[in-house]
Write a structure and sequence with these properties.
With 95 residues, this protein is of the alpha+beta class. The protein has helices at 8-25, 29-33, 52-65, and strands spanning 41-44, 48-51, 71-82, 85-94. The strands form two sheets. A two-stranded antiparallel sheet has the order 1-2. A two-stranded antiparallel sheet has the order 3-4. A hairpin with a 3-residue loop joins strand 1 (41-44) and strand 2. The N and C termini lie far apart (32 Å).
Length: 95
């Protein structure tokens, strides 16, 4: 995987990430989940893996219901996997 910060694909992933943060901050778990590929696998170390929109939405809805509404990325890394895929990894903290 190459770490390519300026490709159109990486720019699209960064835009989707910004849209995800906006959805989360407004309490919109479905909007969060919709920023992932329909078959995406999200690995959240403290919670487990979540596959697809439905499972991913469930996690974000739980956190929103628990009172979380602000997230900060810590050292995000954007990596190109192939011509149509990229990987975002990051530490993060919530309010």
């Amino acid at each position: 995987m190459a770490n390519e910060q300026d490709t159109p694909l990486i720019k699209a992933v960064k835009q989707a990430s910004s849209e995800w943060k906006a959805a989360f901050s407004s309490g919109n778990a479905k909007g969060c989940a919709n920023q992932y590929d329909p078959d995406a696998v999200m690995h959240a170390p403290s919670f487990g893996p979540f596959t697809g929109h439905s499972e991913i939405e469930f996690l974000w809805q739980k956190l929103i219901n628990d009172g979380f509404n602000s997230v900060e990325y810590i050292n995000p890394k954007f990596e190109t996997v192939d011509e149509q895929s990229a990987l975002l990894t990051s530490g993060w903290k919530m309010n």
